[in-house]
User: Which sequence fits this backbone?
């Protein structure tokens, strides 16, 4: 499993990594182009067995940093998300926040396995923090 910065040539792969992109490949491509142009964004492609399987992204802003991790459903359950988040966090300043739905048990497990602790619960889900 490895991480590397997302490059322009990766944009064609990103819609494939998102299950059922409701907005379609063109909109997904445009969203990623906007995201990658934002200051404070560090976006990495997750590769396993030489193939792209997901993304890890940090958004840094005035309120702090928040990370997101998406692993394609076909690749979940193999520990890839946990390893990707651990590897990514080795390069990131603290504190870092993450948010997940209250019923997303896989994401909650990844966050707990990587040292995050829940700090708030609101209508948008659970907020985690890693110092």
Assistant:
């Amino acid at each position: 499993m490895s991480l590397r910065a997302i490059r322009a040539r990766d944009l064609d792969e990103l819609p494939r990594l998102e299950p059922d992109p409701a907005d379609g490949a063109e909109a997904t491509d445009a969203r990623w182009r906007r995201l990658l142009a934002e200051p404070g964004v560090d976006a990495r492609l997750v590769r396993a067995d030489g193939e792209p399987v997901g993304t890890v992204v940090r958004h840094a802003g005035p309120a702090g940093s928040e990370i997101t991790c998406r692993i394609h459903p076909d690749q979940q359950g193999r520990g890839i998300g946990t390893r990707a988040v651990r590897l990514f966090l080795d390069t990131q300043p603290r504190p870092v926040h993450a948010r997940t739905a209250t019923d997303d048990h896989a994401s909650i497990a990844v966050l707990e396995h990587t040292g995050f602790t829940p700090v708030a619960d609101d209508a948008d889900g659970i907020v985690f923090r890693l110092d």
User: Anything to note?
Assistant: The chain has a mean pLDDT of 91. The helical segments are 14-17, 24-37, 80-89, 105-113. The chain has one domain: 2-130. The domain at 2-130 is CATH 3.40.630.30 (Aminopeptidase).
